[in-house]
Amino acid sequence: MKMLINVAETVVADALRGMAAAHPDLTVDVENRVIVRRDAPVAGKVALVSGGGSGHEPLHGGFVGPGMLSAACPGEVFTSPVPDQMLRAAAAVDSGAGVLFIVKNYTGDVLNFDMAAELAEDEGVQIAKVLVNDDVAVTDSLYTAGRRGTGATLFVEKIAGAAAEEGRPLEQVEAIGRQVNENSRTFGVALSACTTPAKGSPTFDLPPGELELGIGIHGEPGRERRAMMTSGEIADFTVHALLEDMPPRNPVLLLVNGMGATPLLELYGFGAEVHRVLADRGVAVARTLVGNYVTSLDMAGVSVTLCQIDEELLRLWDAPVRTPGLRWGM
Amino acid sequence: MLDADFFRRWMAATAMSVDREADRLTALDSPIGDADHGINMKRGFAAVRTTLEKETPDTPGGVLTLAGKQLISTVGGASGPLYGTLLRRAGKALGDAGEVSEAQLADALHAGLDGVMTLGGAKPGDKTMVDALVPAVEALSAGFAAARTAAEEGAEATTPMLARKGRASYLGERSIGHQDPGATSSALLVAALTEAAEAADE
Prior knowledge:
The structure holds two protein chains of two kinds. By secondary structure, chain A is of the alpha/beta class.
């Protein structure tokens, strides 16, 4: 597999150097792997820190900036960051108003963020945590590590980020983040596996005529494999799975998220199919975002995230944001 | 009795075998995980070896505590905190003694294993590192070789299990038929005890 890299060992550091060069609004500590908005700490503002394995770009580093994250901690590819990174990030962004950790529900991420929270609290930083677990493909949560955090992470980071920017206190920002997560559901499908730089070959074997339903964002296979379907059939299956888990009550935010290697042409076509199915089911779509936001390296495929919103959440979604990966209103 | 040198040799032997077996660990992690266990463990234990060469703790407890901290700061993922906790708790249990008996080591690893099970929430049979470590710690009273055999058999016994913890659990039934990479690396850690002991006899 050809890759645009030097050597596998330096892919994360190389990308961070590139982030630093491209985005002067960010302070990028390449050695310690922390990306911080340049004006941090912002007086009186609750800070948001997220992080996770690399390979999901623009998540999380691409969402650092006014209106979204205060700092992000990238780990190795598909490997959660270590507590030292979150501790350093928290120290850099805390204004005294406290720090919200936004953590995707994977065993490694949870353990490392929890360890960091304990250490940060020892140093007098007030920490709250929102755990994102929106992936409906994981069933039997009692007998697994629980639902994975995937596309809804973008909604949580954007909306909680807007709340923090307004000067809301930590417990309110945390509550809004939880509200967004609880009202979000995601389902993903893969048309191809992805290739990690370290391994150099696909993480699982997916034959040409098949697709994988219920994938996560770490190149881990899903729960079921079927013969390839059309975009319309995949939209039917996906929306059905989402609405079965979360019956529609309110208008939704819709994220049609590419996994990394699927062209926007296909994503928009698929987005049209998702809109068709949602309209058939009587679900109003308040806003739609189409693009590659929570990716899985070079995996081909798509995930759909729905977030049921009220007027307040919609207002926070529409609030200005200025990050490398998401920008409007400023 | 086992001194700090023995524990340093144990960590160095683990680093060597993790380095040697990294590709196999990653291959085991591909069908049921995310294909990075080998490279993460290799990075972690290489850092442990470097740290132990730089700072030279003079007690068995000091060696294990430092090794555990280094793993937490270097590995990431679930393996970092879990292996880090195993060694750090074991190190704390050994206290400041300059030499410890094999029975004390067994007790300390028991304390470390308790820490792992509390942190990760895994029980025997969940297809995790616990499945290699529980039988190994139980067999330690019969010597390092017995512990090694027990760990290796425990790791192999994870193949037919249904994963209930960690990333493999997302696969449900499809996790069956694959040996757990964490149990496999745990068996390497236990096996390295015999290598550390053999080196002392030479």
